[in-house]
Write a structure and sequence with these properties.
There is one protein chain. The chain is α/β, with parallel strands linked by helices. The chain has nine helices and twelve strands. A six-stranded mixed sheet has the order 1-2-12-3-4-5, sandwiched between helices. The protein has a three-stranded antiparallel sheet with strand order 7-6-9, covered by helices on one side. A three-stranded antiparallel sheet has the order 8-11-10, with helices on one face. Helix 1 (9-16) packs antiparallel against helix 2. The N and C termini lie close together (8 Å).
């Protein structure tokens, strides 16, 4: 499990590649103007050797737990897991609670997640399901983001551009980057806008938003010009943010 901080997104892409999740995360960060991003890798060797699906899930949770334990020794502010599985988001929730403990680690941080919220909600879930799942993350240190399956123009290693559909986790990552770019970390990111995605596969109507917002499910919309607006953004509850720049850590299930 390796923890690295990159101050150049070009360097991060050189290390991780361009078209995997970490490489795309670097491109998203660069497009939005954030030049510092940390990555935390996960050792999946025990997952790959598991005899069945149930044991693989247990091994996967243990792998993420081991990686996040490494992060306990580092100062950070926002954690984003690029794995949307709800079982993994629960591990992330437990991590931020443990890290933020006032008596032990004293390294407060928050989790931005879309885990537990189905990526393809248009076909397999309703807004009610989103609300139900979001309640499992009911904690001041966790902000669930309704996944919109954003599309983005991605450059491959050869520099060729192509539109790629991203997982809902990138909704949470874009929100974390927006939060990190605010000059005053106490400023809510509601109604903040950015241009990075081309379109969403899922678009919420006004009625959907009225159901999601009271339950703390943060959302985004996109207009015909590709401008994304954060409809509901919860100001992070941490009180240990440095004034200069928030540190966003992304975690992926790949070895460096």
């Amino acid at each position: 499990n390796k923890f690295r901080t990159f101050t150049s997104m070009t360097q991060m892409r050189a290390v991780h590649g361009s078209t995997n999740n970490l490489g795309v995360a670097a491109q998203l960060s660069q497009t939005m103007g954030l030049n510092t991003l940390s990555s935390l890798s996960v050792d999946f060797s025990d997952v790959d050797s598991a005899p069945n699906a149930a044991q693989a899930l247990i091994a996967k949770q243990a792998a993420y737990q081991a990686a996040l334990d490494v992060l306990l020794e580092h100062d950070t502010d926002i954690v984003v897991l690029l794995d949307p599985e709800p079982e993994i988001s629960v591990v992330g929730k437990n991590h931020v609670i443990l890290a933020s403990d006032a008596f032990d680690h004293k390294k407060e941080r928050v989790l931005f997640t879309s885990g537990g919220l189905n990526d393809d909600i248009g076909d397999t879930a309703t807004v009610g399901t989103l609300v139900y799942n979001a309640r499992s993350f009911n904690h001041r240190l966790v902000t669930p983001w309704a996944p919109v399956t954003p599309h983005m123009i991605v450059l491959d290693d050869a520099g060729n551009a192509g539109e790629v559909a991203l997982t809902g986790s990138f909704t949470a990552l874009a929100a974390a980057i927006t939060n990190a770019l605010q000059p005053d970390e106490a400023t809510p990111i509601t109604n903040k806008q950015f241009a990075a995605f081309t379109r969403f596969d899922t678009n919420f109507n006004r009625g959907d938003l009225q159901l999601l917002d009271p339950q703390g499910v943060a959302t985004m919309t996109i207009d015909a010009n590709g401008v994304t607006t954060i409809v509901h953004g919860v100001t992070s509850a941490t009180d240990t943010f440095e004034n200069a720049e928030l540190n966003v850590v992304i975690q992926e299930n790949k070895l460096l």
